[in-house]
Amino acid sequence: MRSTLRVSSIIVLLFGALLSCHPNVDTVTRGPYLQTGTDAAITVRWRTAVKTDSVVRYGHRPDNLTQTVIVHTDNIEHEVRITGLKPLTRYYYSIGNSSKTLAGGNNSYRFTTSPTPGIATPTRVWLIGDSGTANDAAATVYRAYLNYPGSENTNLWIMLGDNAYNYGTDKQYQSAVFNMYPELLRRTPLWPTLGNHDGRSADSDSESGPYYNIFSLPRNAEAGGLASGTEAYYSFDYGNVHFICLDSYETDRTPDGAMMNWLKNDLAATDEKWIIAFWHHPPYSKGSHDSDAEIELIDMRQYALPILESYGVDLVFAGHSHSYERSFLIDSHYGLSGTFNASHLIDKGDGRENGNGAYHKDYHALHAGAVYTVAGASGKTSGGTLDHPAMFVSLNQLGSVVLDINNDRLDAKYLGTDGIISDYFTVIKGQDSFPATVLN
Amino acid sequence: MQLARVFLTVQSLCNTLLQQKASNPLIIGNYFLLLIITATSVCAHGLTHDRLQTLDHAIAHSPKEPALYLNRGRIYQDSGLWDDALLNYAQALQIDTDFNEAIYWQGKAYFQKGDYKKAEITLQKYLSQEFHAPAGHRSIAKVYSRLGDNLKAAEHYDQAINNDQNPSPQIYLERTRTLLKIDPIPVKRINSGLADAINRHGQIVTFLDLLIDLNIKTANYQEAIVWLEKLPTNLKNTPLWLTRKGAITALSGHQNAAKKLFRRALEDIAALPEYKQNLPAFVSVRYQAEQGILQLK
User: Fold this and answer.
1) pLDDT (tens digit, 9 = 90+) per residue, A101-124?
2) Vertex B106 angle, CA B100 and B108, to 5°
3) DSSP per-residue string spanning B133-192
4) Taking Cα atoms as reference points, which of A428, A369, A378, A373 lies closest to residue A404?
5) Sign of the C-alpha dihedral, residues B112, B116, B117, B120?
6) Between these two residues, B267 and A435, which has the higher pLDDT value?
7) A336 and A292 in contact (C-beta within 8 Å)?
8) CB-based contacts of A30, cutoff 8 Å, min separation 6
9) What distance in Å separates the CA atoms of residue A159 and residue A278, rounded to the nearest whole number?
10) Where are the beta strands (DSSP E) in chain B?
């Protein structure tokens, strides 16, 4: 009798264990997250425990999702492109399969489409770098931003590489990105760049590995700009801002390589007022990495910067060094830090309206200057000498960058984990003047 | 520094463990494993000096681990210290003569150092073991290109592309540039290679630029203009595009049409917002257009 009881207990336990191990059909294990948002389309991605078809329901009210997009193929990785949307319009959505809704249909599952390209629109961008630690430090940086005014309406979110330590594996992405930022992922399109740690498990030449599997990035100018033919480097437009993402790690960085050739043409083709570029390896840094010593940093400074500056780039963001370093308004410095001098300073002030004054990009000037920022302390700090002469401020402090762009004005802030702004600056571009008359 | 400290903390913890359980081989094994893992995981972190220091420690504790020498070599290579990198790869290969990854990086280091003959021999050795490795074929193609053997270089680019599931635009570009150096230019081969590239990646500017260059080089100016017209809409009719078209039109002997294009480029630059007109890129295009008109006069 006792042995029969024991056997039946074991069977019950085994059955229970089996049940608990069996993946639930109704489980969303990743996301949803938003990719390649434009004025007329957006991609919604998520992962489920078992294969199903993919359904996104959307509409103008969370309780009235009148439109549906269905992808009939069964998959655990779901990728649905919604098209035919109106510019600068808020939509609510839910995700699921043809038999049921799995998530969404409330206020937190929403997105706002981009404005019509070229139209100046107040724009909020959140930038984080080297955030992939999946620890309290990263969570604190995130919480500080969620508590910061305007975070509810973040239009764009940029990740500056090393998004998931230590090898950028799918599992590490789950911890460092998907479990870390669920609220923002479901409402703000994310635009990443590849860091060296992401590059350990991904290959830009073949666009393979977790980084390339996880993200759906433009390769055929789906979001503006010029088609690059690869997700490793790309551009996109948001209102009157042109964003450029370069691959500073795995792609050929030489001046006559495919990436730099694309960059020149992409810049020649854009009509947008603001140009903001980002990649992982900073052209100027004396943080945990030294831009005088490491080849990727030197290459990007020597090869990418002359092209970008010749087309009037306004801001450049990078990570890699786990610090915050922000330059003066500078131009034409492509050498080692020891060669930086007054001739490279377009404005040697702090760029603050309540200090030396905002940076004014003089539209008569041949070289109007750009501000270079290292923002690689969104997951940890790692010190360094922090004394690059191009930098106005260098901080060994956790945080993220908040950008607000409104027509001719751009405000950048470094937001610490305590919610305090440790650095800020403003860039102002003058109104367009009437074109000059040309005599033939 | 912080990472070095973390490493030292781990090391100190392990030392304590070792002192307590010095006779337990499992713990000793785990200790060295931990050292290697820590050293490997920090090799892409922090200042070069700190990363090297960490690896030096790991190598001192585990001198028979070839991966540590490879990692140290990679750090030197990233810093442009080819000889130091080569020394480390040689040490790795002394321990494990079949350590293919070290052979590959050794070949690349010889190439970067400018020792193309040794690069060729080393990469051939690598490819004899990794016959289908696209990266190996691409690296040796670059070596042959530097050695002036463009035919061999092109063959290896072919292999790199054929063995790669998704060859990048860059590889197609490198192969085409190599083929363009062969005399006579193998036009058919280039066209077919770029057709494959376009089929895979679309009509991106990099490939169209190559087709334009090819047709200019072979004095096939009308065809060059056909490809120029296929550039993306947002690039077409920009001052840069008009100037380029003007230059090709001039080469084809249509002087008045060329002049018109250069003038249009100048007008378009003048119509740009003032902040754009003065940008170095547009100043340069303006100069090219002005020079184009002057030369035609």
Assistant:
1) 999 999 999 999 999 999 999 999
2) 110
3) -HHHHHHHHHHHHHTT-HHHHHHHHHHHHHT-SS--HHHHHHHHHHHHTSSS--HHHHHH
4) A428
5) positive
6) B267
7) yes
8) A46, A47, A174, A178
9) 9
10) none
Residue B155 is encoded by which pair of tokens? 């063959």
pLDDT band at A249 (very low <50, low <70, confident <90, very high): very high
Q: Distance between the two ends of chain A, CA-based, in angstroms? A: 109
What DSSP string describes B188-211?
A: HHHHHHHHHHHHHH-S-HHHHHHH
Question: Partners of A56 in the beta sheet?
Answer: A69, A95
- Per-residue pLDDT of A179-188, as tens digits, reads 999 999 999 9
What does the alpha-carbon distance between residue A359 and residue A409 come to, in Å, rounded to a whole number? 10
CB contact under 8 A, B205 and A227: yes
A226 vs B153: CA distance, rounded Å: 30
Is the separation of the CB atoms in A289 and A280 below 8 Å?
no
Do the Cβ atoms of B281 and A268 come within 8 Å?
A: yes
Q: Compute the nearest-CA separation of A142 from chain B (Å).
A: 23
- Report the C-alpha gap between B232 and A222 in whole angstroms: 13
B30-77 per-position pLDDT tens digit? 444 444 444 444 444 556 787 899 999 999 999 999 999 999 999 899
Helix (H) / strand (E) containing A226:
none
CA–CA separation, A376 and A396 (whole Å): 10
Q: Is A242 or A200 the better-scoring residue by pLDDT?
A: A242
Tokens 């050292």 correspond to what residue? Answer: B35
One-letter amino acid of B162? N
Distance, CA of A335 to CA of A384 (rounded, Å): 20
Of B209, B232, B276, the CB nearest to A312: B276
Supply φ then ψ for residue B94, to 5 degrees.
Answer: -65, -35
- Mutation site for A-interface testing, chosen from B168, B174, B288, B296 by largest number of A Cβ within 10 Å: B168
pLDDT at B25 over 70: no
If you average pLDDT over residues B89-114, what whole number do you get?
A: 97
What is chain B's percent helix, strand, coil content, to nearest 5?
A: 80, 0, 20
Say whether pLDDT at A225 is over 50: yes
Distance, in angstroms, between B14 CA and closest chain A CA?
22
pLDDT-derived band at B267, boundaries 50, 70, 90: very high
pLDDT top residue among B225 and A11: B225
- Which candidate, B228, B141, B154, places its Cα nearest to that of B189? B154
Q: Exposed (0-12), middle (13-18) or buried (19+): which is B64, by Cβ within 10 Å?
A: exposed
Residue for token digits 């399969």?
Answer: A97
pTM score: 0.88
DSSP structure string for A69-92: EEEEEEEEEEEEEE-SPPTT-EEE
How far B64 CA sits from the closest chain A CA (Å)?
24
Residues in chain B: 297
For residue A290, the cross-strand partners are A286
pLDDT in tens, B183-236: 999 999 999 999 999 999 999 999 999 999 999 999 999 999 999 999 999 999
Q: Which residues contact A4 (CB under 8 A, 6 or more apart)?
A: none
